[in-house]
User: Which sequence fits this backbone?
């Protein structure tokens, strides 16, 4: 998986994935098929000509409710589920939108209207690969969601393998519990069912920890493996540098104690070389396009690229917490240990739901660390997990804006140590009946844990309708991505939905030669045709015109018409939200735009509930 992510990023940037239409994309899959065939043949040979598959421990099936929600949610059109993610806003604006634009461009490239295209984007490269194989505008989105869900399941399997190795005489039970705790954590189901990138980082962390334990493998090879996994995690999500790469590197160095200086140095150098090679597609692409290989980061040292210093400052403020130390401690308490438990401490305009998306896992983790530390055989394991969690919490606390979801890679050490701590409890049980009773209790608890996500899912999408009632229809948009863009609808159905879905109106009600500038609307996965959008961090044609003629609104719109724009779609709700957060383009405020369009544009259509208005930019008398 790590290698294929790197290859997707490299060949995608060179335009080779779209060679011969989709031939390049199919060719790249051949090594994986050959590796699978080789693995099957080798396993059969090792088993003497046959493979006896042992069924999993029955506690694995306690994850069934969460797994069912995960798979069902993958079938839903992006933009409908999970209020905590604003309907998967990040997927609509870049995780799934960028692959669409890359397909149109013929390769992976940085886009000046979407700064997220300059991030490593290795998971988005995989989604781009899927988009080439499947074709169409939105058909690939379900495959992307299932890919991310598959990474979630693989991460749970990897954590269970970790637990199996230290589970003692009850290792099958301990492994099953580790699997269930990982997969059933509500954050894993919520994020794993979206076209996001977090679960790739979690998978690489779990497999990296497995790789370190392969003492039969030479340290140089293990170093290369850990370097590959750490770099692939960073390629998938850049914050994995602190959540995955940092713990893996430090733990790997600690495993080299007792090695000769030559072997230890060789192992570290092999890991560094492997990691650097894996990140080259990202570093070289950014370096050639912007002059800064890690743009938009380190802009004060390596260069601003096409940005201004003001944009770089706003971007930094939007991705780091500005809270002081005492307030940050309180925020960490609310976002991790207290998240979704008890009364909601946040007030308006805080709009995220207060769900227990970490469930009780943080508390189980603390108890697990204490229990493992108290048992001599597990003390070394407790110290390693404590070190991982300490590094992750430190990075989360000081280098992010301290939001709950960003701690998601911590599910790996948390579920592992919680499951392993049960070994210490079961080892003290002498009677068979006591062990069975204990297992039954654990089964009931893990089943209840798995059902937490079911109750969260039942409350989706948490959207008030026009009458003020809260909508509860989690399954309403299964297979409906084509409907949200209008492409799978009849003309009559489109006519009915234009009043509810701006994308359908823009796609099918405007003239064929219409050109639309979207202001404040960056979640554009379902929009089609000739249009221009930008993220809040970037600058678009209207912003540039306002900057050039700050006191002349007529010139703003004359400039837009000269560039061929016929319409302006303004999302006032999002503009206000960006302004409240301090992330907005200073030129684009609701007040300035409202005053300007009143004089120099005409309203063509409004969506009052969404606070979206479409204006026509035809010449005024």
Assistant:
């Amino acid at each position: 998986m790590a290698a294929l992510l790197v290859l997707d990023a490299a060949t995608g940037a060179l335009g080779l994935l779209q060679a011969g239409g989709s031939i390049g994309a199919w060719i790249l899959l051949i090594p994986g098929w050959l590796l699978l065939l080789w693995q099957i043949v080798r396993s059969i040979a090792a088993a003497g000509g046959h493979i006896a598959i042992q069924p999993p421990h029955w506690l694995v099936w306690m994850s069934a409710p969460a797994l069912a929600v995960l798979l069902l949610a993958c079938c839903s059109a992006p933009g409908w589920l999970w209020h905590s993610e604003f309907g998967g806003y990040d997927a609509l604006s870049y995780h799934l939108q960028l692959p669409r634009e890359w397909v149109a461009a013929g390769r992976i490239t940085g886009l000046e209207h979407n700064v997220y295209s300059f991030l490593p984007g290795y998971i988005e490269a995989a989604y781009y690969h899927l988009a080439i194989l499947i074709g169409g505008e939105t058909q690939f989105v379900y495959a992307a969601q299932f890919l991310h869900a598959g990474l979630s399941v693989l991460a749970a399997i990897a954590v269970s393998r970790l637990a199996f190795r230290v589970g003692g005489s009850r290792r099958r039970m301990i492994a099953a519990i580790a699997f269930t705790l990982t997969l059933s954590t509500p954050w894993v189901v919520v994020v794993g069912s979206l076209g996001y990138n977090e679960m790739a980082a979690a998978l690489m962390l779990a497999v990296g920890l497995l790789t370190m334990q392969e003492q039969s493998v030479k340290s140089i090879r293990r170093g290369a493996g850990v370097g590959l996994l750490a770099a692939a995690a960073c390629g998938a999500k850049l914050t994995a540098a602190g959540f995955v790469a940092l713990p893996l590197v430090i733990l790997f160095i600690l495993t080299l104690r007792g090695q000769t200086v030559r072997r230890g140095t060789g192992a570290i150098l092999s890991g560094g070389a492997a990691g650097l090679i894996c990140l080259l597609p990202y570093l070289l692409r950014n370096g050639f396009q912007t002059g800064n290989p890690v743009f938009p980061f380190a802009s004060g040292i390596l260069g601003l690229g096409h940005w201004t210093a003001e944009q770089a400052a706003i971007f930094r403020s939007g991705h780091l917490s500005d809270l002081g130390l005492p307030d940050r401690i309180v925020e960490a308490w609310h976002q991790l240990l207290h998240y979704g438990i008890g009364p909601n401490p946040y007030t308006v305009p805080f709009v995220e739901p207060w769900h227990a998306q970490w469930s009780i896992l943080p508390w189980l983790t603390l108890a697990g660390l204490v229990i493992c530390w108290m048992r001599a055989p597990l003390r070394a394991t407790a110290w390693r997990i404590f070190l991982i969690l300490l590094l992750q919490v430190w990075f989360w606390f000081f280098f992010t804006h301290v939001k709950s979801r960003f701690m998601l890679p911590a599910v790996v050490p948390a579920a592992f140590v919680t499951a392993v701590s049960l070994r210490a409890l079961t080892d003290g049980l002498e009677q068979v009946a006591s062990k069975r009773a204990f297992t039954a209790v654990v089964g009931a608890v893990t089943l209840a844990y798995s059902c937490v996500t079911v109750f969260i899912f039942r409350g989706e999408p948490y959207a008030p309708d026009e009458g003020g009632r809260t909508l509860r229809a989690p399954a309403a948009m299964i297979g409906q991505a084509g409907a949200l863009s209008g492409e799978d609808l009849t003309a009559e159905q489109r006519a009915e939905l234009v009043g509810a879905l701006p994308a359908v109106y823009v796609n099918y009600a405007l003239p064929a030669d219409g050109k639309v500038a979207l202001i404040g609307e960056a979640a554009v996965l379902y929009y089609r045709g000739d249009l221009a959008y930008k993220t809040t961090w970037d600058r678009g044609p209207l912003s540039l015109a306002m900057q050039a003629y700050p006191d002349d609104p007529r010139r703003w719109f004359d400039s837009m018409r000269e560039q061929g724009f016929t319409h302006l779609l303004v999302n006032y709700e999002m503009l206000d939200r960006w302004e409240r957060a301090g992330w907005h383009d200073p030129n684009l405020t609701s007040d300035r735009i409202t005053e300007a369009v009143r004089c120099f544009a005409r309203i063509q259509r409004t969506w009052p509930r969404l606070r979206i208005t479409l204006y026509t930019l035809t010449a005024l008398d």
